[in-house]
Amino acid sequence: MNIATARMTARRTTFGTTPAGTQASLFELEEPGVLKARITDYGGAIVGLETPDREGRLADVVQGFDSLDGYLDPENPYMGAIVGRFANRIAGGRFRLGSREVELATNNGPNSLHGGERGFSHTVWRSEIVETDDSVGVVLRHRSEDGDEGYPGALDCTVSYQLRAGGGLLIESEATCDATTVVNLTFHAYFNLEGHAAGSVLDHRLRICAERFTPLDETQIPMGSLIAVAETPFDFRRSKRLGRDIDADDEQIQRGSGFDHNWVVDGWNVGESVLRQAARLEAPESGRVLELSTTEPGLQVYTANFLDGTLRGKGGQSYARRSSVCLEPQHFPDSPNQPQFPPTVLEPGDVYRQRTLYRFSVAP
């Protein structure tokens, strides 16, 4: 092991027991003074991320819960979780796959959301600590059986969280199937770079590397077009305050109750697996910076518009509306119904792959 990984540590503790009697674990990955990640194998959720501000003071910058009970709560809005088998929305909970009509649970108005009623965020994944020459991490595995939430084919998924020297958290995902299916994973961390209990994120500055986004209909399903962000509230090509245009008199803003849209990441090409910078988020008071790079064609930005203060998180903190922001790398919503979008079909013998890097630093 080299000097970098010698400074990193990984340990496993018990997090709690599910109503079915399955034990969940909590993993702590740490590079002292740089980044500490806490991850549970229940839903693969990121429970905590501690990183320093410009004065060297550590704070936990993701919202979540102190115990497993919070993640088991039916009202838990996917806090920190792996989302699948298909992230985001599928119109009417239906799509055609070859000659087959696939029908899913509709758990978000008329649509299917984030894998259905339970999905990947509500199961205990098999887990183990892994150390390499340049990282420490946890590897999670889950088998989604044929017919799970209505999806065809058995799907075997592996997701690894790797702590990289210098403030990086690399997430690598793979999946294989035994029959034609669809797959689209994402990661649903709620970020507040001033600290999980710091209140509003509207003064955070965000830059998105995207010239286009996918506008939504009245039920938050993409309308099929890719619209230029120029001269719209969705133009984050230059860093700006999250709150600047979040309540603009704009039909798309109204449909998302703020930002809850998919941006088209610049430079993505079918068949490539290249990490591209998709977003940069900065907190003005602490100076903390999060840079997100991904192999995915889309980035869902959600400004916690539907948190209402009733959810009690870590330390009993009440998480209010717009007290965090989610940056979710993904394929586009409703892709199985929209063949002009990047494909999400997985065939037997092929491998689904995704890589996403969260890199934390401090602005001068």
Task: Describe the protein's architecture and organization.
The chain is built from three helices and 28 strands. It has 364 residues and is mostly beta strands. The protein has a nine-stranded antiparallel β-sheet, with no helix packed on it. It has a six-stranded antiparallel β-sheet with strand order 17-26-25-22-19-20, with no helix packed on it. The longest helix is centred in the last third of the chain and has 6 residues. It is globular and about 60 Å long.
Task: State the end-to-end CA separation.
Answer: 32 Å
Strand order of the largest sheet: 11-12-13-14-28-24-23-18-21
Give me the count of strands: 28
What percent strand?
35-45%
Give the assembly state of these chains. Answer: single chain
Number of helices: 3
TL;DR?
By secondary structure, the chain is mostly beta strands. It has helices spanning 3-6, 68-72, 251-256; strands at residues 9-17, 23-31, 35-40, 46-52, 58-60, 82-83, 89-90, 94-97, 100-103, 112-113, 126-131, 135-144, 155-164, 168-177, 181-182, 186-187, 190-191, 205-208, 212-214, 227-228, 240-241, 260-264, 276-282, 288-294, 298-302, 325-330, 345-346, 352-362.
Topology (elements, then pairings):
Layout: H1 3-6, E1 9-17, E2 23-31, E3 35-40, E4 46-52, E5 58-60, H2 68-72, E6 82-83, E7 89-90, E8 94-97, E9 100-103, E10 112-113, E11 126-131, E12 135-144, E13 155-164, E14 168-177, E15 181-182, E16 186-187, E17 190-191, E18 205-208, E19 212-214, E20 227-228, E21 240-241, H3 251-256, E22 260-264, E23 276-282, E24 288-294, E25 298-302, E26 325-330, E27 345-346, E28 352-362
Antiparallel strand pairs: 1-2, 2-3, 3-4, 4-5, 6-16, 7-10, 8-9, 11-12, 12-13, 13-14, 14-28, 15-27, 17-26, 18-21, 18-23, 19-20, 19-22, 22-25, 23-24, 24-28, 25-26
